[in-house]
Amino acid sequence: MRTPTLSRRRLLQGTGALVVTFSLPVILRAQSPAPSRARDQLDTWLAIGQDGRVTLSTGKVELGTGVETALSQIVAEELDVAVARVTVVQGDTALTPDQGPTVGSKTIQLGGPPIREAAAEARQTLLTLAAARLGVSVDKLAVADGVVSGGARRVTYAELVGGQRWSRAITKSAPPKRVAEYSVVGRPIARVDIPAKVAGSYVYVQNVRVPGMLHGRVVRTRAAGATVDSVDADSVRAVPGLVKVVHRANFVGVVSEREEQAVRAARELKVAWRSSDSLPDLAALYDVIRRTSASEKVLTSLGDVQAGLAGAATSLSASYQTPWQMHASIGPSCAVADVRPGAATVWSGTQHSFGLRAALGKLLGLPPADVRVVWVEASGCYGHNGADDVAGDAALLSQAVGKPVRVQWSRQDEHGWEPKGPAMVIDVRGGLDAAGRVTAWDYTVTTPTHSTRPQGEAGNLLAGREIGMSPRAGLIGGDRNAKHTYVFPTDRVVVRWQATSPLRPSALRGLGASQNSFANESFIDELATAAGADPVGFRLRHLSDARARAVIERVAALARWDPRPSPKASAARSGGDAAVGRGIAYAQYETETAYAASVAEVEVSRRTGEVRVRRVWVAHDCGLIVNPDGVRNQIEGATIQTISRAIKEAVAFDRAGVTSLDWTSYPILTFPEVPESIEIELIDRPDQPSVGAGEPAVCPIPGAVANAIFDATGARLRTMPFTPERVLAALR
Amino acid sequence: MMDITVNGRRHRVEAEPDVPLLYVLRNELGLNGPRFGCGLAQCGACTVHVGDDAVRACVTPVSSVAGKGVTTLEGLGALGRLHPVQQAFVDEQAAQCGYCVSGMIMTTAALLKKTARPTEAQIRTALAGNLCRCGTHMRILRAVRRAARA
Questions:
Q1: ipTM of this model?
Q2: Sign, CA torsion B27/B31/B33/B39
Q3: What confidence score (pLDDT) does residue A576 get?
């Protein structure tokens, strides 16, 4: 059993500590084995301290999305304690269960239920103990903030079990509360992490410092696939504070006493690189994607699509293209590693401590049991950014010097080397009958994988690849939201998986979901225009799912949608500069979880081609809502980030490597550019399971903006981002 | 060796004169409020005050602040005694990951010191050089308006 007051996280937050201790929290009973991490054991999940604090141990981690608070609410609800009484230990391979990676808006959806079960089990156990202690039956007991009352007597949770192990399995026989009984879940509880974040005392992985820690930097050239011919260690011999130049195959780094010394040594180290112009011509990117060999997989096949197209009164086809984009976290990735013979500890902002541990074990030649990964929150990640890679860098450098080493990537490292969301090409054909109903839908997306997480593969870490290990990954995520939810008589959806891609692809918020939704929701709009129909009415005519219809109807009401076909009558006018229009788009995330519909109002300058997204309305249904303000925060964030991706963002590269290496060469949306307002309507569904809320709202934004540009001007944008050059070209 | 004054206290620091103030604040003084974001003065995560001015600590040589007062997020306020701008960020729940928020708060505090009742356009212009990737902008704008009313 752990003593909650000594939990690592609170210890750090309480002191703003600069030093992390290496010892495990105190084990109270000398005869107790190490803390359990078996998922069926109550001790794995929950502990109640002698002071009454409740500690939840979870493999899920806070990525800035508010899950520490939401998971605390779930525990507080089931146990009838105040949220402030709950401490959450997250993503520590020595202390928490492995709940898989924190991805895909799945923390509440999949991570929440076992925590709810554990808390219900703990409550049932506590009430049984209290009944015996107080001499009354369980049904006569009441609980308020960890104090059990029965008859005229009271006993606290701490008095019942404080500081002791449960030593029992989770039977799943303890019924969780009914939703109607909820008083904490469903409330906009303030985030537990925000006060320390605004005070400067919150411990990010960038702030972790351990005794004797040195500073490392990796040396990478911009060129993709470059190899090292030679490293001239003498070139930095005179740089103060240098501890070691580390060179293993194509991995090069420096370790220094002070951070600025490491920065200087990395800058001045002479490395002879061998590189070739291995990347395609950026201007021909989408042609290259079309020509790259791919394996085809049919996702939907309903009826005879060819016959549906052949028999259509009107048929249309269109191609949509989306670029490489990056996570672009504000804080470059950072890790601290302390690698000693037979034992390594790595502090990391990883999304999956256990998957990283297995990869680091292989990288270091240690069994996974000898590696401890301790998650500490990093700058927001939005998917698989450089967090894992930098842990590999720090681990190799620490192993080389036998001392703890902190590595923080430079801005250029992060922009240049973070794994990126890959470019995609989507081709769609569709037909309408004489009455304006869709007769056929034929959709093909071409994409590489969108996930190359470490998952135990050292070759999936940059450093591992550089010392000669092979990457390995499945085909994941490029097909997300390729399948729509409309009801068409013939329907075919195909994914063409590319085996290779010019840059290293991985998961960026929603993986392929927003790109596929962009194509689906643009093309449905193109069909609506061909049918002379209002875009809202046209969608509703082809949808049967009541929850899908509800988000569309609610967002239309919220935006005071004027039912009429697009483009608006004034769109053809060439006089005047500013053209204003509105567009709608909708998706069910992953074609099976949350529903999100957005309306965007844009202003397009006919003169400059600039697009301003002025107002956005969102209707959102993610089942039972745990924390409405947390959900709103996620929807606002998803909306703004995706507007940025839709109108501004594309990774640039030349034949050698990435050239988007800072914020001027990869601009993101700034304060003067964000909308005037984002209005959100949450549709709570207490009778439906909670599903994720971090990603669904990324789906409708690109389509809503493209449809609004079309509504305003009659110009159809089919390639993201909708830059002034592209808008002007479409207007001509 | 040189002396600098940070959050009202004098400190003797060892860094070379041309070392960016940010490294000194974080590594020598243990002040984690200012954050490394780009090292290029492009993102604002490292914003501190030198006198009443918001400056980018990542490109400010430590020698240039000798004899001037430096204020970091920690000097503005701490848990239990938050500065009105910090409190407004809590009240509006204006953070997700929060990595940029130190710079947002420092830029806002400097703005409000000079312009107590800024217009919406003045707020957006003042924050134009502070990047947020989580998309917390609407809440940050609300927090700034709230702080201006406080």
A1: 0.98
A2: negative
A3: 76
